[in-house]
Design brief:
globular, alpha/beta, single chain, 8 strands, about 270 residues, 8-stranded parallel beta barrel, binds 3-methyl-2-oxobutanoic acid, TIM Barrel
Length: about 270
């Protein structure tokens, strides 16, 4: 089984093959995704702050937590490319500290790191790439900037912001990223960015014309129910399915139907 690399990401755009990514945070789900054989990349996202820790946003996540989840994901993966999020505070104090933290994530098992932001993070991204660390960019509605934006809201509706986000994407490409996540922007901006850069764009709420898509795994499986987001599609109702399974287990125990003969040792 051939491991996916940055070259496969770059080739996919040339060949017009859509990239498919999901988040994962643990061994069991990472192995499940890897063994489907249809997922190009697993992002160990700082969305773990919400879906794993139960926080309202991603801001509390620190580098040790991301590294811990990367180590777990790595154990379940043979083929899929693993990207680790640089969490809030892991590079803002100094880019030197940021390089140190990115190295820590790579040593923990990530193949690349993702950095949120536009032209302001270009010097940092150049440092990472020249240190041998592949970087995925992230523009548009970047959740780590939520307090600056005044909450999670569609970005790029007005001309000025639209131009700024497009310029950001181009500057990230020049800095050496191998792909760019484009989050929560109007479809026409998702398309314009995709046409403006040679590296693949990975959309999340950025419309139909990006080079690939990413979603949070727990949203796709219908397990995380705190938010109802327009750009998410639930492919199953995991919450109801698991809820029923747990209730059947409890009922079986109480009614004496579990354990049965096949579950006991002589
Ligand atoms: O943290 C995350 O899961 C992300 C994706 C949703 C793009 O950044």
């Amino acid at each position: 089984m051939k491991k996916i690399t940055v070259l496969d990401f770059l080739k996919s755009k040339k060949e017009g093959r859509k990239l498919v990514l999901l988040t994962a945070y643990d061994y069991t789900f990472a192995r499940l995704l890897d063994e489907t054989g249809v997922i190009d990349g697993i992002l160990v996202g700082d969305s773990l702050g919400m879906v794993i820790k139960g926080e309202e946003d991603t801001l509390s996540v620190d580098i040790e937590e991301v590294a811990y989840h990367v180590m777990s994901v790595k154990k379940g993966v043979k083929r899929t490319f693993i990207i680790a999020d640089m969490p809030f505070g892991s590079y803002q104090p100094s880019f030197e500290k940021g390089v140190e933290n990115a190295v820590y994530l790579i040593k923990s098992g990530a193949d690349a790191v993702k950095v949120e932001g536009g032209s302001e993070v270009v010097p940092f991204i150049k440092k990472l790439v020249s240190s041998g660390i592949p970087v995925m960019g992230h523009v548009g509605m970047t959740p780590q900037y939520k307090n600056v934006f005044g909450g999670y809201r569609l970005r790029g509706r007005d001309r000025e912001t639209e131009e700024k986000i497009k310029e950001d994407a181009v500057s990230l490409e020049e800095a050496g990223v191998f792909s760019i996540v484009v989050e929560m922007v109007p479809e026409r901006l998702g398309m314009a960015i995709t046409e403006s850069v040679k590296v693949p764009t990975i959309g999340i709420g950025a419309g139909r014309y990006t080079d690939g898509q990413i979603l949070v795994l727990y949203d796709v499986l219908g397990l995380y129910r705190d938010l109802d987001i327009k750009f998410v599609k639930r492919y199953t109702d995991g919450y109801v399915i698991f809820n029923n399974a747990i209730k059947r287990y409890a009922e079986d125990v109480r009614e004496g139907r579990f354990p049965t003969e096949e579950n006991v040792y002589d």
